Amino acid sequence: GDSVTQMEGPVTLSEEAFLTINCTYTATGYPSLFWYVQYPGEGLQLLLKATKADDKGSNKGFEATYRKETTSFHLEKGSVQVSDSAVYFCALRTSYDKVIFGPGTSLSVIP
Amino acid sequence: SQTIHQWPATLVQPVGSPLSLECTVEGTSNPNLYWYRQAAGRGLQLLFYSIGIDQISSEVPQNLSASRPQDRQFILSSKKLLLSDSGFYLCAWSVPSTGTNEKLFFGSGTQLSVL
Fold first, then answer.
1. Chain B, 56-75: which have a CB under 8 Å from a chain A CB?
2. Which one of A34, A46, A98 has the shortest CB-CB distance to B49?
3. pLDDT digits (tens, 9 = 90+) for B80-97
4. Distances in whole angstroms, Cα of residue A60 to Cα of each of A24, A67, B28, B35
């Protein structure tokens, strides 16, 4: 069945470090891929998305590229800030509108 | 503009009691509707989703059920709650898949404690 797998962390980085959070998926057809973020005490919000193979989603310095050959959508940021501390969720949306999430990765950025 | 309402915000129920959580969306028509559960420290588990009235897909076989009595209303129910039903329940909606704007909009959630 459809599924999303991501590194669960927690991940702790120093400010200005490079961030990678791995995400792989299993789905039939051609799903859309998303990263959502949940800041402390807040609800989930969309961070970025990609709707087809080789698309790159980007927002707030974060990037992820839709890799169909490796069924991956890894999240990267070149220089993290303390304000990036949050839980990050990888998600996919199937062609029949089912939306499933990975387990989430907790990120803490320390000054 | 579109808004989503979910209530109650918190609920404490004894084991074996019934459950009814309600979610409504305003400002749009024929939305896709979703129920998720987020256990403490874990990700979002899809429970039910609906692409139209009388079109509800169940993802997790358990003692929960969902209904969509109106186009923009989605109800999560149980006849008899279990301890394991405790968690944070989120309702969400999206426009039907168009390839342009597919993100989910989330309600504020219901914290359910079954004692």
1. 57, 59
2. A98
3. 999 999 999 999 999 876
4. 22, 21, 29, 28
Would you state the pLDDT for residue B5?
94
From first CA to last CA, the distance across chain B in angstroms is: 39
Is the CB of A42 inside 8 Å of chain B's CB atoms?
no
pLDDT digits (tens, 9 = 90+) for B27-84: 988 999 999 999 766 689 999 999 999 899 998 868 899 999 999 999 999 999 999 9
Answer yes or no: do B109 and A96 touch at CB < 8 A: no
Cβ atoms B112, B20 nearer than 8 A:
no
* CA closest to B49 among chain A residues: A98
* pLDDT (mean) for A29-35: 91
8-state DSSP, A83? G
